[in-house]
Amino acid sequence: MSLAFAATPLLNSSLPANAIPAEPAPATTESAPTAGDTTQDAARSRFETVWDNANAVVPFSTGSIISSCTPGQANPEATTKMLMAWNYMRSLNGLAPIEIPLDSPASAPAQAAALTAAIGPVASPNPAAIQGAACVTDDAQLASSAGVIARLEGIVTPATEILRYITEASTSNSNDNLGHRLELFAPQQARAAIGAVSIGTSGPTASSLQLFDSSYQQAGRPLNPPLWEDGRPSPNTITWPAAGFFPTKLLPTGANESISRWSFSARCSDLRSAKVTLTGPNGAIPLEVIRRNEPGVDPSLTPWDYAGYDTVLFKVPLSNLTIPEFYATSKYQVSVTGIQPAAGCTNTPTSASYTVDLFNSSWPADPYGDADGDGIENYQDPQPHIPDLHTNRIAGADRIETAAKIALAMAGSGNATGTPKKIYLARSDILVDALVGGALKDGPVLLLPPEGHPLPDTVTSVIKRLNPEEIIALGGPAAVSDSRLYEVAAGRKATRLGGSNRVATSIIIARRTGAAADSLYLAQAFGPGGSASPDALAGAALSDGPIVLVDSSAPTIATIRQLAADLQVKRVVALGGLGAVPVTLLSDIAVGRAATRLAGPDRYATSREVAREAYRLRPTTRAYLARGDVFADAVAGGKLSDGPLLLLPPKCQPLDRETLKTLSEIQAFQVTALGGESAVCEANLQATLQWPDVVNETVTEF
User: Fold this and answer.
1) Using one digit for the tens of pLDDT, what is the confidence trace for 293-316?
2) What b-and-e string marks burial along 483-513, b requiring 16 or more CB atoms within 10 Å of the CB?
3) The pairing of beta strand 670-674 with beta strand 390-394
4) What pLDDT is recorded for position 419?
5) What is the pLDDT of residues 35-71, one digit of tens each?
6) Where are the domains of the chain?
7) Which helix (H) or strand (E) holds 329?
8) Residue 692: is the preceding peptide bond cis (ω within 30°)?
9) Label partner for 113 (CA 20 to 30 A): which of 221, 273, 309, 435?
10) pTM of the shown model
């Protein structure tokens, strides 16, 4: 994840930074007011209402095409949800809500900047000056100096998009820039424009929030109505977390970070000498306190002295945060002393104190309800949002018998409508032609032994039981001979889906399945030593288009480019990293269509990215596990359409945290291992039951 702070003026008007006078305050000590709800029940209920709405996975944009620098349009549903989350967080400090004017002149620049940010690395403060930036237009440059912009990865919801701006999370403990937070909490903010771009949930996601009028004025494109109104109510203090009841889900930190960034902003004050103390349930907490250096600091670095407020940042170690259980709270007392008046201000309190009452927002608002429908009231349920979890295994004595059992499971589990009318055949020791066959969801695949070996009883019994109308061989006669095909068909219709090579076979299958496709997926045709692509295995769960195998030859590129045109797909997606599908190959095939990538550092990480995207396309509550270095079980399992497939390393390597996080993100209440314990060991299968512990971690990682 990367966050970029856009260069902005200290104030969005001609007033000096400290021109907003403080209200007369005879006392020298002030208690920060509680602007939120007065009871935990009310606070929990309001948070749950907002979060459940704004935390939904929705596309951020429509018509955004990176390869042709087409910004597209921000999805109104996404921007409305962003605004809901933003206004909720502002309300915790008593700040007035913000509106998005219809047909704002800032909308097009905001969208252009979001597209540039999605391409990366970032779009601010000056896209043209950043190596690797693309699609830099006058609009993108204008917007980059008029707001804040972020480029993020992974599953991003409107709520988490706004939250990441405000929390200032990073990938280390060193992000001491509070620019995003201070700007989004400016009391004078009355209106905004939002640009948003997403190319698939697991691809790049970016947003651009237009906050300031001055850049548009200087460009001769003044905004009417303006984004700022200087006369809006300004509280004496702005804190994060806010005083009063505060939901723990709003306290995330960056991946690998060990601190949470808290801040105190005081109106008409100078905090350069301020002392901050924090006391929690277990006593005083050690803090790293960071203040601005000099007044009038360059706002492109950190706008500490901003909008009439000075700010102090204090880093709270996560190890000192007590996350309350169930419906309890944890109180944290903040004390700030040594406050000085800013230039031109009088009656500034010399100290301030306030209490943050953390409540665990992982628990539903109604303690006596049953959020997960498992018959246990929320207040007695240690996992109130998680129904009972289940694991099972589909396995036979060998890969042929396992495929047969998967075929029977497919017929009876909702993967097909009634009994399948088709059965596909692949050779158990030559699986490359079957890799992309997972897109053929109208029937299971059975594995056959090599030529010269008798047809196993398990295969014939499945065919008799399912009694399909058609038997289809995947690949050419070298994989499944004509004589073996007719033997299996036993008088039924017998056909073949096979080309001159694995690439041609994949194209034939794609044309058969891609009539209503939105996407075309590309997987490597020839790996080291001519091996098949493991990325195509996981890709079978992607429901919006077929997979084709690609190489870098000109005829292949031209043929698949024409396939994309014939299918009229909206995007072309590479499966796997640059070594599998190079950038030039992807762009040569996409040509005018959105081009993106689902990839991780290895096949296992790539399968997790694919699983997240599959869940976005078609949410389910099931996931499948298969061994990633031996493809047989995954080939058969690719036909299962009711959940994504995660590949696991061999030799029972311990289930890693990233797999658990993925299971939590895709809400996998049923996890099924494909193959015996030599493929997916029982310890790893049972370890998947631990994923709710990731969900209920309140201080979450980005």
Assistant:
1) 654 444 333 345 678 899 999 999
2) ebbeebbeeeebebbbbebbbbbbbbbbeeb
3) parallel
4) 78
5) 667 898 899 999 999 999 999 888 899 888 877 888 9
6) 2-380, 390-695
7) strand 329-337
8) no
9) 309
10) 0.65
